[in-house]
C-alpha cells in the first residue's frame, strides 16, 4: 500500500479518486484487468495506455480494458470465469443501482471464494440527484453486505479509496465491491494519509478522537463521514469512527474492535445515506434513508433526507 503515492487530493468524488488509484494498481499488479458495462466515462475505471481487449477497431488481445456492453449479468459471469481460470485479477464497473442485474453472479463469486474478482460500483446513493429514485440506490449497499464472503468498501475520501482498491487485489478469500460516490467529498486531512489507509484496511478506525472524556461515538461511512466530522466539531466528548467496510472490521481482533468501539460507550449514532437496518449492530440510533429518494440536485436530496451535518448535530443534541 505504501507503493502508491499519497494523492494529496482536494474535494473530489471517490470515483475520481478511484480513477487515479486504478492507474497505480495497474502498474503494481501486471495481471490486473478491468472493464465496464458501457459506462467507462462515468465510472472512471479506464486504465490509461493499457489498450482495449478484443478484435478489430482499436482492440487487440493484449488490451487490459474490456467493453462488456450494456450487459451487466454477462459482465458478472465473464468476471467469474476469468477468476476461475486463475491468471488474471479482474474488475467490472457500472452504477451501483444496476448491481441487481448481476446479483446472482455476485452471490456465486462469494460462494466460490473468488478473490480475483471485484466490482467498481459508482453513483452510490441519493447523491446521484436528478436521475431520480430509479437511479438512487438506498437498499443496495446493505443488500450487498448481507451476501456472505463479500467485502463491501464504501470509502470516505481518496486515501480510504487507496486502501479499498489494495484490499480488492490482495484479498484471497472472496470478492470485493468498491462503492464510490458521484459527488465531491471532503478529505479528512487531519489524519495522515497512511493512517487513513491502514485504518480503512481494518474496516474501521478513529477518524476523529474525542478531546475529553468519551461520551458519544458517531459511526459513518462514505460521503457521510464528512458530515460526522463537522457535527463533532466543538463537542469534546464525541469520537468519530469511519467504517468503510463492516466485513473487514468484523475480522479484526476483539482487542482492536474494543479499541475503536469501546463497549463502555453505549451512546452511539450511525449515519449512512441508505437503509438503516444493519447499523443497529453498532449503534442505538441511526440517521439513514429508509425510503426512496426523489429527483432534484444531489445536494438538495441529501439535505432534505437528513444527510447533513446540521441534521446530525440536532440528533446529537437530542441525545444529551
Question: Can you describe what's shown?
Answer:
The N and C termini lie far apart (40 Å). The longest helix is centred in the N-terminal third of the chain and has 15 residues, at 14-28. The strands form three sheets. A six-stranded parallel beta sheet has the order 4-1-5-6-8-7. The protein has a five-stranded mixed beta sheet with strand order 9-11-10-12-13. The chain contains twelve helices and 13 strands. The protein has 320 residues and is an alpha/beta fold. The mean pLDDT is 97. Helix 6 (158-170) links the parallel strand 7 and strand 8. It has helices spanning 14-28, 40-43, 72-85, 103-111, 140-145, 158-170, 193-201, 225-232, 246-250, 254-260, 298-304, 309-318; strands at 32-36, 52-53, 59-60, 65-67, 89-95, 117-122, 151-153, 176-179, 205-208, 216-220, 238-242, 268-271, 285-287.
Helix and strand string, N-terminal first?
HEHEEEHEHEHEHEHEEHEHHEEHH
What Rg do the Cα atoms give?
Answer: 19 Å
Number of strands: 13
Number of helices: 12
Question: Helix share of residues?
Answer: 25-40%
Q: Shape from CA axes?
A: globular
The fraction of residues assigned to DSSP E strands is 15-25%
* Order of strands in the sheet with most strands: 4-1-5-6-8-7
Q: How many angstroms separate the termini?
A: 40 Å
Structural class: alpha/beta
Mean pLDDT: 97
Outline the biggest β-sheet.
6 strands, parallel
Point out poorly predicted stretches.
none
Amino acid at each position: 500500500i505504501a507503493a502508491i503515492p499519497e494523492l494529496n487530493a482536494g474535494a473530489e468524488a471517490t470515483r475520481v479518486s478511484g480513477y487515479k488509484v486504478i492507474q497505480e494498481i495497474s502498474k503494481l499488479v501486471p495481471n490486473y484487468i478491468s472493464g465496464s458495462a458501457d459506462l467507462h466515462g462515468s465510472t472512471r475505471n479506464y486504465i490509461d495506455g493499457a489498450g482495449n481487449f478484443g478484435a478489430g477497431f482499436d482492440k487487440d488481445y493484449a488490451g487490459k480494458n474490456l467493453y462488456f456492453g450494456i450487459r451487466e449479468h454477462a459482465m458478472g459471469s465473464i468476471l467469474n470465469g476469468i477468476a476461475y481460470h486463475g491468471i488474471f485479477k479482474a474488475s467490472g464497473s457500472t452504477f451501483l443501482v444496476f448491481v441487481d442485474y448481476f446479483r446472482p453472479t455476485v452471490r456465486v463469486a462469494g460462494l466460490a471464494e473468488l478473490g480475483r474478482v471485484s466490482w467498481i460500483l459508482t453513483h452510490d446513493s441519493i447523491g446521484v440527484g436528478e436521475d431520480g429514485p430509479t437511479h438512487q440506490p438506498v437498499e443496495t449497499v446493505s443488500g450487498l453486505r448481507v451476501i456472505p464472503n463479500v467485502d463491501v468498501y464504501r470509502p470516505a475520501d481518496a486515501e480510504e479509496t487507496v486502501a479499498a482498491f489494495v484490499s480488492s487485489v490482495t484479498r484471497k478469500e472472496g470478492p470485493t465491491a468498491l462503492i464510490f460516490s458521484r459527488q465531491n467529498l471532503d478529505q479528512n486531512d487531519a489524519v495522515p494519509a497512511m493512517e487513513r489507509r491502514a485504518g480503512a484496511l481494518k474496516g474501521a478506525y478513529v477518524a476523529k478522537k474525542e478531546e475529553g472524556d468519551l461520551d458519544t461515538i458517531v459511526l459513518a461511512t462514505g460521503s457521510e463521514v464528512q458530515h460526522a466530522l463537522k457535527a463533532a466539531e466543538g463537542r469534546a466528548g464525541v469520537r468519530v469512527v469511519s467504517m468503510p467496510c463492516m466485513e473487514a472490521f468484523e475480522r479484526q481482533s476483539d482487542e482492536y474492535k474494543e479499541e475503536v468501539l469501546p463497549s463502555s460507550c453505549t451512546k452511539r449514532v450511525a449515519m449512512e445515506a441508505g437503509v438503516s437496518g444493519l447499523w443497529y449492530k453498532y449503534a442505538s440510533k441511526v440517521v439513514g434513508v429508509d425510503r426512496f429518494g426523489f429527483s432534484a440536485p444531489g445536494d438538495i436530496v441529501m439535505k432534505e433526507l437528513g444527510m447533513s451535518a446540521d441534521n446530525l448535530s440536532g440528533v446529537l443534541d437530542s441525545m444529551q
